[in-house]
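Worked example

This section walks through a single chain of length 229. The input is the sequence exactly as stored; nothing has been trimmed or padded.
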Amino acid sequence: MTFEVVDLHRSYGSRAILRGVNFILNQGELVCLMGENGAGKTTFIDTVLSRVAPVRGEIRFHDQVLTTTEDRLHFISRTAVLGHDAGVFPDLSAEENLRFFERAYHGSLTGEGKERISELLSRAGLYSRRHDFVRTFSRGMRQKIGICRAVLHFPEVVFLDEPITALDSAGVDFFFEILSDIRRTAGVFVVTHDPSVFRGEADGFILLAQGVFSPRAKSDLNLKAYQRA
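Given that input, the structure is written out below as tokens.
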């Protein structure tokens, strides 16, 4: 699997947010994106996922340029996104949420899908709460359900925006276990203000400043400069 962005531009009115971004992510890689608030990190994800349209540039998946709606929908179906919101339904139970997304991803709920859901809930430490409404969960518990939702369909490209927000130490351990699993078949792109968390896992660090991606070597990275309280 290869996901590639070539000369990507995005503006809001007269304000240029992305100015010729170039980026490649391969299967098994984890790359962290850093940048100040408002630098365009979320805009980059929104643009590659067709939530907003680029001014110009190419997005490639498996070496094929995404030119048609069908191409883009296929790419989106092979991605996962987890942002500040867990992306789950508060008035469904944990299990009902994952069963809903399993049907959405695969068209039906199979025995294999049920086993996958039970496995993820058990690993998240939420199997005993599987019938409880998500609205009764803490912020960290909802985030763990969001992680389960994101990896349920074995995506090939995973976009994570501050994924360990609100997680306790056990939740962070769960996240990194799932991350290790998913990297066997996917490339992972993480937006973070605290790259020190990923220093032992990341294959690369990128700084987004003035609309341009600039690689940063681990040895040259001043991690404290990007941390936020």
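What to look for: Residues 87-154 form one domain.
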